[in-house]
Design a protein that fits this description.
Number of helices: 8
Shape: elongated
Helix content: 25-40%
Order of helices and strands: HEHEEEHHHEHHEH
Number of strands: 6
Distance between the termini: 51 Å
Strand order of the largest sheet: 1-4
Low-confidence stretches: 176-180
Radius of gyration: 22 Å
Structural class: alpha/beta
Strand content: 5-15%
């Protein structure tokens, strides 16, 4: 039985391609063709399917360097690089951490309003986050699971590597205005 793939499902909309830098050369070639011609063929089929799809691609790889090294197709790079958006790593935008934590607390504890102790927030703000937002999300999910029904997440609920982050890198804690952010 034939079924619709992601590109066909995205017809008339947007398709998000995550970690584009890890694509094999064969997949890069197929994607380039689909981007250029706005059509493709299903695996094992000979019927061409036309699609109208906007692509958004993300990677933590340096694609320009990969093009220079010959590991990423130059033509695909320029086809995808229409409106590049460089998002700095989380360690360079620490002001986003409280908002992201609030979002993840709501996601992982939708029935109980949770908040962080100041010690927990300071530790989250001090940590370097080599895994960026995904690592922060995992830390919050873990803390919610370990809170055992308590409404306050404390330092001990956080992963060990976050607990021991040097606190000297954190600016003094400032209370946030109460606008729904219950940190």
């Amino acid at each position: 039985n034939s079924r619709q793939g992601r590109m066909e499902q995205a017809h008339g909309g947007t398709l998000f391609l995550d970690e584009i830098g890890t694509m094999s050369p064969a997949v890069q070639t197929k994607l380039l063709r689909a981007l250029q011609e706005r059509q493709f063929e299903r695996v094992g089929d000979n019927q061409t399917i036309k699609v109208d799809v906007r692509f958004i691609a993300a990677t933590n790889s340096d694609l320009a360097r990969m093009v220079a090294e010959g590991t990423f197709r130059e033509d695909l790079y320029y086809r995808l690089n229409v409106i590049p958006i460089a998002l700095p790593p989380l360690r360079d935008r620490r002001d986003d951490i409280p908002l992201l934590v609030t979002h993840f607390l709501e996601k992982y504890s939708p029935t109980m309003r949770m908040h962080l102790s100041q010690a927990a927030l300071r530790a989250l703000m001090a940590f370097g986050w080599p895994g960026n937002v995904r690592q922060l999300e995992n830390a919050v999910e873990r803390a919610v699971a370990l809170s055992a029904g308590r409404s306050e997440i404390d330092l001990a609920d956080l992963p060990t590597d976050v607990q021991v982050a040097p606190q000297s890198t954190v600016a003094p804690f400032v209370d946030l205005p109460d606008e729904g952010l219950d940190l």
